[in-house]
Amino acid sequence: MPIYLESVATAFRLMASGDQDLMEILLLSMQVSLTALVLSCLIGLPVGAFLATRRFTGRGAVIGLFNALMGMPPVVVGLIVYLHLSRSGPFGWLGLLYTPNAMIIAQMLLIIPIITALSCQIIEDLHEDYRDLFTSLAVPPGKAVKAYIIDARYSLLTVILAGFGRAISEVGAVIVVGGNIDHLTRVMTTTIALETSKGELALALALGVILLIIALAVNMLASWLKSRASRRAYA
Amino acid sequence: MPDRLTPIDVTGLTLMSGGRCLLDGITCRIEAEGITAILGPNGAGKSLLLRCLHGLADPTSGAVTFGGRPGEASMRLQQSFVFQQPTLLRRTVIENMLFVSRQRGIAEADVQSWLEKVGLTALAHQPARLLSGGEKQRLALARGLLTRPSILFLDEATSNLDPASVQMIEAITREVAASGTKVITVTHDIGQARRLADQVLFLARGQLIEDGKAKSFFSKPRSEEARAYLEGRIVV
Ligand SMILES: Nc1ncnc2c1ncn2[C@@H]1O[C@H](COP(=O)(O)OP(=O)(O)OP(=O)(O)O)[C@@H](O)[C@H]1O
Ligand SMILES: [Mg+2]
Q1: Domain ranges of chain A
Q2: Looking at the partner chain, which of B55, B103, B127 has a beta carbon nearest the beta carbon of A139?
Q3: pLDDT tens-digit readout, B40-75
């Protein structure tokens, strides 16, 4: 049997048997990316709403900055986080380098700009609609932000899913700050990179298949949400 | 009982934009009681005047006082504005009402009774964006009345309505005016202005051309512009 077919067979055996290494890696990936996602939403959504609804000097520059940061190469983000967390860096004393927390920080830096910039655009459109009404009703600013996030929820969910997609599939940043340490900071993407370079294709393939399934599921969920929103005239 | 917001005194209200004078030194007293109709051709500045009164637009110069006190943001809590293009939240009909009632501590029974009054009870759980144009206007009006405002601004609130709905809205408008709400309405429906208005302000090109009792305005308008407007001739 050709080597790649063998690898495919092993990959499916690993998945079917719930191989412990595989599960550990999968679990850590989800933990890191979901934590990064939740924290990024807690920051990115209100900041996006604030930028969308408030006028102040320098607002355009701030929005431009977030837009530019959306395209930051993950390796560079990894490098920046590394510099800050390394022993000689300003936050070296926290001892975070090569821990899952460092990976969470790196992924947050990658997806906060996405969530902020895209939610700002979405809420800006809604604000165009609602501004006069909210002024007329004297809706307090905090309540208004809440209403914007609730009423744009379908569009914002697709933004959140895009953020998750970027976090879970990214390799450059987590490999630099996590170090790809077995049983500690090894996630799906870094394992794929490592195992492939070692020529151990089975585990890499199994993880690749899972990653693909996650990516597909996220995309399907996003488009389902979109169509549901337009069907119900909420978007 | 909060202090009265009427009569509304407008002094030298001017709004310039892009080198154009959109409102040109408007001075008038909007009477304390009853219904005041603002009439005038398209682009006369009727919506802008209403927006200035409600504090949604900032005049370049001039002043507005409510019951003798200068206008301030908190007075908006006693005012409601029904927009020319109904602005509805991307929620269900009832959620549009509850958004306001919750904010102001209004009983849910009031929400139900206003929906009933404008004939939207059966549509309460529809997304508001799926309503017809007339239904949207009725919802916007019900939402505006929910807070029992001292002043109700209506910007062509019946422009998309069928005759039965127009009658319904006119009846409601009379009722709230009789119960002490000051109604200021912009309309192109001259028949409606005749039926409802106590006072008429006639605007053209950003200027206040006539201000007087509705009766005398409709029976013998003083200006050529108003005569032309009432007869359906073009006012330039
Ligand atoms: N924000 C604005 N900036 C600049 N010009 C404006 C603005 N709003 C309105 N205008 C202009 O002011 C004029 C008056 O507008 P307004 O909406 O008050 O007219 P209107 O009397 O309500 O007309 P209609 O009967 O068509 O509703 C118009 O020529 C319009 O183009
Ligand atoms: Mg208008």
Answers
A1: 3-234
A2: B103
A3: 999 999 999 999 999 999 999 999 999 999 988 899
